[in-house]
Amino acid sequence: MSTKKRILFIANEMSPYVELTEFAEIINKLAVKANDSGMEVRCIMPRFGIINERRHRLHEVVRLSGINVSIDGDDYPLVIKVASLPNARLQVYFLDNEDFFKRKTVFTDENEKWYDDNGLRTALFCKGALETVKKFGWPPDIIHCSGWMTGLIPMFIKAAYKKEPVFSNCKVVYTIGQTTFKEKLGADFLKLITINDNVTKKELDFFKDINNVAMFRGGAAFADAITFGAEKVDKKLVEEFSKIKGKKTLPYNAESDLTDYLQLYNDLAK
């Protein structure tokens, strides 16, 4: 008897919690469709301050408490919370930190000024998500990353976490979306994402432009499969990643019923 395939969605937006681009709704539908098709599904995202904990019935997962994420020599505590996706029997886990994710705005302040520490927040979320999966003790078959903020995760899995048993058999899907910001992630970003000796200049070079496109490029470069999650994707990225030998790709299709994604998961998990 075959066991259920395990699909982990890691995203910085997902309906109904955070909706920054149209892909937030697609991730919701994908998670539900994968779950309804018999896959075992979990989701991870940041617990941004715009998420109403009472309305969405978030509560702390005590057994996952005590995760400390080390970034550039500093330790940051994470509180893990969980909610059930409305109208679906699947769980969404939220990574919370008082200093970095409680703000009432997501990536810019009330005056639309870019947060200077968005690079650190990104490194913290990506490493924190993988540390949370380790604590789950739940080896995923597929990790589907979407949103620019998840762009480090494919590289972390293939380099920094390559010896971790929980990730040894998983395949990574990365979705390239629309470019949503023009700012830089900070002069120290490459230092922040060098989380161990397995992250070398070879890996860092993909992120050297420290901007939105660099996050997409790095995520796609280390993924096993690439999808395009918006009609208006950076043209250079389309040219670079539409046809790569040895990598499965899915073009953007506004009319898709998402079965092509499920087929992709099944093909990768064989």
Describe the structure using short key phrases:
alpha/beta; Rossmann fold; globular; 10 strands
In short:
With 270 residues, the chain is of the alpha/beta class. The chain has helices at 23-36, 53-56, 118-136, 153-160, 189-192, 201-204, 212-222, 235-241, 259-268; strands at 6-11, 40-46, 59-60, 67-71, 74-84, 91-96, 142-146, 171-176, 225-228, 248-250.
How would you characterize the overall build of this protein?
With 270 residues, the chain is of the alpha/beta class. The chain has a single domain (6-268), classed as 3-Layer(aba) Sandwich (Rossmann fold). The protein has 9 helices and 10 strands. Strands 1, 2, 3, 4, 5, 6, 7, 8, 9 and 10 form a 10-stranded mixed sheet that branches. It starts with 5 loop residues before the first strand and ends with a helix. The model has no long low-confidence stretch (mean pLDDT 94).
Layout of SSEs?
Layout: E1 6-11, H1 23-36, E2 40-46, H2 53-56, E3 59-60, E4 67-71, E5 74-84, E6 91-96, H3 118-136, E7 142-146, H4 153-160, E8 171-176, H5 189-192, H6 201-204, H7 212-222, E9 225-228, H8 235-241, E10 248-250, H9 259-268
Parallel strand pairs: 1-2, 1-7, 2-6, 7-8, 8-9, 9-10
Antiparallel strand pairs: 3-5, 4-5, 5-6
Helix pairs in contact: 4-7
